[in-house]
Backbone:
């Protein structure tokens, strides 16, 4: 029974209480084990239980909070969405599994999809009965995403997909994948792509886990060998894939970032706690660096609040790049600070990786995924200095 | 949280920017030796920007820190050689319940004011300042020495942090009652002075010394944002026009990425400075103000230093404005608490 039908009528304080009460009441019983799990370096943990938790969230209406009501969402304001993230992080809610559907695919369908597609795909995302993965990167198409080679050919009333994706997060959990595939080999690079929705559970798809820097696995190789999807499962027209795939990127204005920062704050608190035990805290040089990290975190918050609070930003369209270039290196430095707080024992891994080590190792990815920092710099430079003509 | 600007605020920014672009040109700024009296009179008289945050019943417009911040940011862009920052911060430090009679003169700009906080050898922490006030004459009498008083040599009135019987307070002293020694300064666009008080007649105008320091920090932060933005724009324009190896410098990725990093630093600085101004009336200001000073002056320093590098030898000349930005950024960064001192304040106030 959705607890959130009346969201638009709630004051922020009422909304916060609603979220907090619900989380407190539901992150109990079997779900109590999930508190703090699934975060950076822990994405592999408790997958089954976390899927059930997602369905618990979904049943109460917490997924799709920010989607418009017309699309089956709750029409929550930006502030309310931020409050949800804050409360979720405050209570130590587990790492999410439905985010690729909720935050990447859904906005894409809302902007570019058909009414039928929205009706077919949004409700199971909101209910967490279908999970999604993002099939963009390939062995030969990373930052240069427009170079994807995976091919899709129209065959009667289906598309047949052949090729390989890589680094596909949660492909082993996902029921569906949104795939960027080449449907016209003769068209210029960006114009030959299409955006397809492909079911994962079929003979033409093989998922092979890739072991990550932490020794665990969250991303995968995905092999498509004549995998099929119905002809209508294309978002936009054939050839629109680039526009559709990149069209929603610029919409991200930092709602998730604000929530994420509460997770960061918990991590930083933890680093301070470790440092007090290890003695690092008593070293004024160490403490100065830690205070600077604290300052950095406040700055991330100020940046996110300003981005959300100004209708026309100073650098419209590149706010997401600015935000990423601020938080990703910050998070990386936090990982380093965590290690230095622990001291020499941070080099030992008896009995598995510690939290500090997971954070330290995992944060190397922050500057790579979702458009590497170099690519984010390119985006900002293009805006400020103009694009460089290609010879 | 509201971060946007109203139409009136945007209009104010446009008006000030247009005015300063016309009147605070590089040539004027260089010729002013830190104080262009004509410019000051017109800013106060025609634009009325000194009156913005002062209450209507004291001759002001009753606007807020936000409006003042807009002007300060614009002033930073042109390295305004006029005592705007010093006067508005001193005015903001005055508690109307104590020093209402001073406000009309500050509002109409007929009185230039400066805020005297730091003392020689005592660093930036109020607990080490030893300037004293005692009862005498019609009010108080002040003894001690203040250093690094921005625009202190051109001020008509000084608001001085001093201790009276163990109680910190802010005291107004007329310029003629102060021995003033103007300094030559690294930053030629804003002068500093040493002020000596030897039984100077004073009146109590405020009790919140900490807030006065916070206001000055926030003002230096938002001004530094202006400095950084102007410097970055200059750099961007230069990279687009200067050709080497047959192409504009702007084509080289090594430089593009540096510009992107600078832009990110400027965005972050803008956010922190404006956050501080938006919370100026709340408890959060005690942390937001030193934090803004730290973040914004660090960014302005980085941007202006890189600006010299990206201009090549041209940036190293007296002729080019790059060094003026760099020097203002340096002064703002080091004055009234450098980064380490600010982190100490922040750590103490945040209980880290
Ligand atoms: C943890 C994790 C999860 C991921 N999950 C997914 C997922 O779910 N789905 C998905 O599709 N992808 C996913 N990715 C892949 C990610 O999107 C790519 O790694 C990223 O786009 C970079 O591509 P690449 O790894 O091929 O590196 P490359 O593009 O080969 O880049 C190598 C290095 O060169 C730099 N570089 C590349 N081009 C330029 C340029 N033009 N200018 C300057 N420098 C440049 C890069 O910044 C990088 O430092 C994930 C990656 C990670 C690490």
Residues:
């Amino acid at each position: 029974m959705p607890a959130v039908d009346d969201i638009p009528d709630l004051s922020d304080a009422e909304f916060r209480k609603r979220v907090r009460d619900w989380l407190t009441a539901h992150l109990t019983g079997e779900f109590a084990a999930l508190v703090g799990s699934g975060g950076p370096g822990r994405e592999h943990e408790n997958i089954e239980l976390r899927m059930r938790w997602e369905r618990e969230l979904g049943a109460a209406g917490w997924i799709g909070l920010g989607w418009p009501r017309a699309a089956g969402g709750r029409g929550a304001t930006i502030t309310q969405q931020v409050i949800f993230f804050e409360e979720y992080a405050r209570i130590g809610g587990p790492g999410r599994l439905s985010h690729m559907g909720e935050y990447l695919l859904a906005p894409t369908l809302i902007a570019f999809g058909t009414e039928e597609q929205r009706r077919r795909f949004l409700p199971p995302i909101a209910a967490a009965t279908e999970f999604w993965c993002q099939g963009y990167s390939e062995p030969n198409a990373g930052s240069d995403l427009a170079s994807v080679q995976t091919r899709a050919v129209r065959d009667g009333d289906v598309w047949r997909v052949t090729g390989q994706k890589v680094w596909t997060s949660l492909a082993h959990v996902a029921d569906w994948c949104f795939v960027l595939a080449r449907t016209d080999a003769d068209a210029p690079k960006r114009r030959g792509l299409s955006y397809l929705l492909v079911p994962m559970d079929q003979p033409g798809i093989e998922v092979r886990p890739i072991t990550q820097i932490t020794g665990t696995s969250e991303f995968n190789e995905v092999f498509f060998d004549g995998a099929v999807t119905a002809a209508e499962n294309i978002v936009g027209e054939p050839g629109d894939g680039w526009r559709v795939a990149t069209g929603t990127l610029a919409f991200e204005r930092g709602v998730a970032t604000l929530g994420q920062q509460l997770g960061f704050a918990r991590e930083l608190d933890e680093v301070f706690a470790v440092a007090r035990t290890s003695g690092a805290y008593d070293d004024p040089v160490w403490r100065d660096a830690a205070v600077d990290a604290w300052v950095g975190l406040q700055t991330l918050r100020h940046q996110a609040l300003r981005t959300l609070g100004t209708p026309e930003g100073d650098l419209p369209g590149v706010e997401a790049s600015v935000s990423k270039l601020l938080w990703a290196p910050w998070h990386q430095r936090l990982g380093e600070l965590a290690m230095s707080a622990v001291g020499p024992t941070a080099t030992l891994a008896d009995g598995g990786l510690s939290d500090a080590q997971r954070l330290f190792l995992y944060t190397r990815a922050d500057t790579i995924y979702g458009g590497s920092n170099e690519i984010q710099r390119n985006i900002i430079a293009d805006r400020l200095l103009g694009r460089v003509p290609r010879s | 949280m509201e971060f946007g600007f109203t139409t009136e605020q945007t209009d104010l920014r446009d008006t000030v920017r247009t005015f300063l672009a016309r009147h605070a040109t590089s040539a004027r700024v260089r010729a002013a030796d830190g104080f262009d009296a004509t410019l000051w009179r017109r800013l106060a008289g025609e634009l009325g920007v000194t009156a913005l945050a002062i209450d209507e019943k004291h001759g002001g417009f009753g606007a807020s820190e936000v409006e003042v911040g807009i002007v300060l940011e614009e002033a930073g862009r042109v390295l305004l050689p006029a005592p705007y920052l010093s006067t508005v911060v001193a005015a903001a430090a005055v508690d109307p319940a104590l020093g209402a009679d001073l406000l009309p003169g500050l509002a109409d700009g007929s009185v230039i004011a400066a805020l005297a906080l730091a003392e020689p050898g005592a660093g930036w922490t109020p607990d080490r300042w030893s300037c004293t006030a005692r009862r005498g004459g019609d009010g108080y009498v002040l003894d001690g020495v203040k250093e690094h008083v921005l625009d202190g040599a051109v001020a008509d009135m000084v608001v001085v942090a001093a201790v009276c019987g163990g109680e910190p307070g802010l005291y107004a002293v007329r310029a003629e009652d102060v021995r003033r020694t103007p300094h030559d300064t690294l930053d030629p666009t804003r002068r500093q002075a040493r002020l000596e008080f030897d039984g100077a007649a004073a009146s109590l105008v405020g009790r919140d010394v900490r807030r006065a320091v916070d206001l000055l920090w926030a003002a230096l932060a938002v001004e530094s944002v202006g400095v950084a933005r102007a410097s970055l724009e200059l750099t961007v324009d230069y990279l687009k026009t200067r050709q080497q190896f047959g192409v504009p410098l702007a084509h080289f990725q090594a430089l593009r990425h540096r510009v992107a990093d600078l832009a990110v630093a400027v965005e972050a600085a803008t956010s922190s400075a404006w956050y501080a101004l938006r919370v100026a009336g709340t408890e959060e200001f005690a942390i937001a103000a030193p934090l803004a000073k730290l973040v914004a002056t660090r960014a302005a320093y980085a941007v202006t230093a890189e600006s010299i590098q990206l201009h090549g030898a041209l940036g190293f000349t007296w002729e080019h404005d790059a060094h003026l930005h760099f020097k203002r950024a340096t002064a703002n960064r080091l004055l009234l608490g450098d980064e380490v001192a600010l982190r100490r304040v922040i750590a103490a106030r945040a209980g880290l």
